[in-house]
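Changelog-adjacent note: as of this version, every example in the card shows the full chain rather than a window. The one below runs 450 residues end to end.
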Amino acid sequence: MSSRSLERVDVETLRRRFVARDAVVGVIGLGYVGLPLVGAVAGAGFRVVGFDVDAEKAALLNAGRSYIRHIPDAAIAALVESRRFRAVADFAELAEVDAVLICVPTPLTRHREPDLSYIIGTAEAIAPHLRRGHLVVLESTTYPGTTREVMLPILERGGLKSGIDFFLAYSPEREDPGNAQYSTTKIPKVVGADGAAALALVSALYDPFVAGTVPVSSPETAEAVKLTENIFRAVNIALVNELKLVYEAMDIDIWEVIRAAATKPFGFMPFYPGPGLGGHCIPIDPFYLAWKAREYDISTRFIELAGEINTAMPRHVVDRLQWALDQRGGKGLKGARVLILGVAYKKNVDDIRESPTLKIMELLEAKGASTAYHDPFVPEIPRSREHPEFAGRRSVALNAETARGVDVALICTDHDGVDYRFLVKHCPLVVDTRNVCARAGIAAGTVVKA
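Full-length structure tokens:
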């Protein structure tokens, strides 16, 4: 241990700087989580430096422009003009910040195992610029143990020690893209840290711009909190997806069942079926815990069963669509023209990560159908790791010619701005996976629920 490591950093002085907002905060990863976080931190009065490996993104932000649909250009321009925010691609500038918040992806490998390459790469990028007094906070969703088992050894390679020279914490992101009711600043923040000093510092940092911090006993506990939140949702969505299959066979409308059950003021929480799970959390996070549990010889059967059910939903949608075509004139999928409504994983966002629509398109085309899509939030499908074949496809206009020129329209994402009444009027058959037609009061014999 170096001699300077024996002299502890003045934690109270650092804490007071965070409380007074007299500190510079670095945010690594300027995507769907990192960019809203930048807005919250800068909006509270901190100076913020955003780091991203993509220099083009940094240049775009510095010009006051956003590349995320639900974050307007005006919001970015205001941050830049206030001189409280700038974006860079040079990680050497990490030495100039006081706190480093990490918001990088944590996907799965093709074998559905955790891919920590972004976290490891970020830790290795930070390590050469780590200095005494730094607070490093991981926000990316991951399995319990990542912060201390994976990040800590990398950060300590240069001789600085956690809890003495620098401080390490975990605070899971709770971002819900497109949710205007619960923005970053309105959501309580769970914080867990490597030692009491780090916990005090991370609480002081987040308190000014969130709806209160929720301290827990360790980074591992905080990591488990995030997984528990998303596993809860994944399991309950799997349950209603399975109920949908059962009730569909009984000719019972699952949506009507849920609507009536939700009138009970206790003991029931409504979840809704769909074409499958999408986004950066719910389809992925349960497998992080399932993978880690195997280290302890524990089989997470309930979690894995939920994953199997949710993963199977795109195939059910395709089967249901094929059945609907057969019922309306005996036309099979081979040669069928299918118009997809929505490729984003949820309504009113431009995020296609893990979108079940892409899997549905793959399955339809494998059966000989041709597909086109309309999505006002996704004018062009970006390249994705799982479905590079769809990169560059462009959204078609939703007009009478388009609607009448297909055999069936499949509603996968229920964006608010789409005229579903127009769609049903002009399209010969509509398969609805979101119940949006019924919610809009559209009663037509050409609409089939899936």
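Structural remarks: The chain is about 40% helix and 10% strand.
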